[in-house]
Amino acid sequence: MTNDGKSLAVYPGSFDPMTNGHVDIIERGLSVFDEVTIAILLNPEKQPLFTVEERVEIIREHYDGNARVKVDTFSGLLVDYAERVGASVIVRGLRAISDFEYEFQMALMNRRLNARIETVFMMPAESYSYVSSRLVKEVVQLGARVTGLVPSIVERRLQEKYGPPPERRKRR
Ligand code: PNS
Question: Least CB-packed of 22, 40, 53, 140 within 10 Å?
Fold first, then answer.
């Protein structure tokens, strides 16, 4: 709970970039919690496609005007961040059994670190069960479209990074 009595969940991740699978989980989170804070991990070891600033900007633009969705960055332990912002729940998406082992380990480690923070798993619509940020980047880099798999602003920003898909180039 936040100071004003609202239930707050943190939805952490890399979001490089945000996909419609993430959007689906955020919507499900909003159906249960008053506020969802999207918390982007600052990870100096990873070489992301989008800088943290770009990811924050993209997500803020997508959720422009939705006061129940906040965007933030964090470093260090996730449970420390959650406690700091007054969230007692961490939301994670489970797409398939293959996600389970890693998520299970993280949830139990986080519980050991801070038993006051609960991890809640949510399943996205089946239509997004195969969608990942990694595959989205690969597919766009190799010249195909990802319309419907990512928000339109993400699709635009991917095209700015990689150039438009080949079919569109021909029409010019
Ligand atoms: O979307 P991702 O990249 O799978 O998200 C992973 C994330 C950010 C949830 C995870 O790496 C994380 O929580 N990092 C913070 C460091 C931490 O708290 N580690 C110990 C708990 S397992």
Answer: 53
- C-alpha–C-alpha distance, residues 88 and 13, integer Å: 17
pTM listed for this prediction? 0.94
Provide the mean pLDDT of the chain: 94
Q: How far apart, in Å, are the Cα atoms of 92 and each of 3, 33, 95?
A: 24, 14, 10
Tell me the per-residue pLDDT of 43-62, one tens digit each, with 9 for 90 and over: 988 899 999 999 999 999 99
- Cis omega before residue 48 (within 30°)? no
Please tell me if the CB atom of residue 14 comes closer than 6 angstroms to any atom of ligand 1.
yes
Is 95 a catalytic site residue? yes
78 C-alpha to center of ligand 1: Å? 7
